[in-house]
Amino acid sequence: MCGIFAYLNFLTPKKRSEIVDILVQGLQRMEYRGYDSAGIAIDGSNDIESPHSKVALLRKAGKVSVLSDFIKESADDLDMDMEYNIHCGIAHTRWATHGSPRDVNSHPHRSNDKNEFLVVHNGIITNYREIKEYLEKKGHKFESETDTEVIAKLTQHIHDRYPDFSFRQLVETVIQQLEGAFALAFKSSRFPGQLVASRRGSPLLVGIKSNSRLQTNHFPVSFSKDAGWKWGDEKQTDGRRFMSNHATHLRDESSFVETPNNILDLSIAVRSSNGSAKLEISDSTTAVRPFDSADWEVEYFVASDAAAIIEHTKQVLFLEDDDVAFVEDGALTIHRISRHADNGEQKREVQLLEMELQEIMKGSYKTYMQKEIFEQPDSVVNTMRGRLLPSRQVVLGGIKEYLPDIKRCRRLIMVACGTSFHSAIACRQILEELSELPVVVELASDFLDRETPIFRDDVCLFISQSGETADTLMALRYCKPRGALTIGVTNTVGSSICRESHCGIHINAGPEIGVASTKAYTSQILSLLMFALTLSDDRISMATRREEIIDALNDLPNLIREVLKLDDKVHEIAQQIYKEKSLLIMGRGFNFATCLEGALKIKELSYMHCEGIMSGELKHGPLAMVDEFLSICMVVCNDHVYKKSLNALQQVVARKGAPIIIADNSVPEGDLAGMKHILRVPKTVDCVQNILTVIPLQLLSYHIAELNGANVDRPRNLAKSVTVE
Known about the structure:
alpha/beta, Glutamine Phosphoribosylpyrophosphate, subunit 1, domain 1, Rossmann fold, 3 domains, 15-stranded mixed β-sheet, five-stranded parallel β-sheet, 19 helices, 30% helix, repeat, GFAT_N, carbohydrate derivative binding, aminotransferase, glutamine-fructose-6-phosphate transaminase (isomerizing) activity
């Protein structure tokens, strides 16, 4: 989805060229999220006496590299050597939802031709048509087809009506009128050196970089009074419009902010003579006071994704829904409009990112996806580290306190989308076997559409690599108030699902940059397998089965290395089928999820039609498609459905089909006689076998896409993190 990046430097002198480089590099770090256009907004005056008097808006459809070239072409109008002590810049990569990919539809969007207010937005505004209609009647002219432009125009409209509003007040008033999901960052020539950011439903975090060390890592939240603007139903013929019955009192700043001193001001975290700050926290206030302060500087980074920030700072603060982050005079404060009845004092914790810059670099690999496929021997070790103990116990610290409640539940419900959904299918059978509970697997969008009944004694698992998947997050918010115990299974610490669930399992696969998920999928399966093992740790009848699975997990990294040696052979097969229009992948039992996931990878990377089929359903329709011209791949493993899998293979061969076979080493050669292409993977326990059988299909999808000249890391029309419904 769209990527937001904003950068504000306070008393850290930067040339305009350096600011542009930081903004563009931030966008490049988020390219994997999927996008079709990009843009930045920076101070554009070349007059050293009034450096903030106007804003330069630079936008282009296409890749970030196209934008970078356009900025270089604009260098004649912009003095790139001009230096700013204080500057705010915003940047954006757009994934089209309203309006085609064109320069004018690219972000940032502006309030007027003077570029007085600019905004970047990730999400969808569902009531933008009504707001646009209202603003058009008030004389505002629109230049784009997007929903985002109404935000910039509305900010301008309220500012014109109430010129005494602060920048933060304007934004707080605007976001109260918006319906839908959004993450926003605002810049204005009216408020130079200030930055406002807010979120509702879409992820946003703030990075803090300073030579001064923070001695407290909690930002108190200030609560602002309601702005008084209402979107109401009028009986007049012009329909809905804005009203402002009580807004005039907002001109008094003290009446607007309920707790004006309840802030953490970085301006007082200054360097002493030895380069570090001494801070003292008073018992009577949440403000922090320094000693021996001489000068100080700070840089702020606002982004949709930690990958854009990690090279600058590891100190980050994750915003909650309806938070407003405001930077003025180098001070960062967090505000909210309303206080929930059950909330006392609220704080936002500064956290340290654990990822390293090299983790989001390609290294010696050609693409991120290739790197992530070959990282799987290490990623599965990271997933199991500290959990699968030498004593052969399995300990998941994130759910340990809730384990008794989980074991007493009525049913387990796994909710997910896409690849995460397939990982749930892959583990459904073993969860049923070890827990002896009914296990339901739900697509998040369908789960919400049906308004599925949820009970207090249900346990619901929400699986998402990013932890921000919109449908999965909405499903969590649907289940939680109905009393279900919610468990988040994510790869992103600090994500919305991670924060809002009762407990969770971090899959710890490491950053995944390629849009098509590979190592996160195998780590999700592994995490769910360990979850199943914890549910059965006190069952003597399951002891032998558990030992068998634990042995297989200990051997897994080496087994994956063996499978990755098939790369050259998979490439040869890809060379023979990459021009085909359709491919069927068949399997059953634990390997049905492998078929679904392999088909999804081939579809999203190579744009070839591909379908994963339960081989038990072959006679119920799909067999009609089989002939000597159809490309087919079949997964045949020596497990409890082996004879049934062989039966399906014989039916395909009888119709002159020539399938590619993925089989474990224990399958007899005689049963596969006459098969032209056989990919052998090591034999392991049945519920772990699907981790090994999916890797050849990951490699196949990669090579087919490469041979077709497709962009493997950023397939068309797709985004890494789907943060809108």
